[in-house]
Amino acid sequence: MLAVNRSVLQPPSAHCREIHLTAIIRHGTRYPTTKDIKEMQQLHNNVLHNALGEERWLQEIKTQWTMWYTEDMDGRLVQKGVSDLKHSGREKLRSGLIQFMTSSKHRCVNSTLSLKAGLTGLWAITDKEFNHTMNDSLMRFFDKVHQVCAGSSQHLLSCDRGGPVQAGPGDVEAPGEDRRLP
């Protein structure tokens, strides 16, 4: 484990210690999703047509900000994302057995394929197959957790509560219900 943000993640007891680590790598460096691109396009349009003022910084934004993201980019991996995951795959190969699991989202499947390409490309492994499984109920659990779906502005609050995640797979709480592990 390289680092833990202790300001966000606290053990339930001072006597707890880490004994197992599972890494979930959702995807590599990517373009924004269609939803984010639409919001950026709206902001760009608002600034160009509605922002008032003669300040130099505002004029620079209005004349130099080029909105080059397009909706067809929809979260697709950039070349750096592919390269980063290949590099990560090479490093992790030395650690032993690796189980690959992904959601069905194209960016997640592409990330998994890139990581596997890094594993097989390191020593030109052609006689070994690394399979992956798709599990949307586990890898996209947040689609069913009300507090996470509430929106990015509430993201920190939803992460801090912890109740929905601690309830376990398939046991999603009703909105407003707050269960904690003993």
TrEMBL record:
InterPro entries: His_Pase_clade-2, His_PPase_superfam
Domain of life of the organism encoding this protein: Eukaryota
GO molecular function term, any single one: inositol phosphate phosphatase activity
One Pfam family matching this protein: His_Phos_2
Region (Disordered) residue spans: 160-182
Alphabetic keyword roster: Hydrolase
Keyword Hydrolase: yes
Name of the protein this chain belongs to: Putative multiple inositol polyphosphate phosphatase 1-like
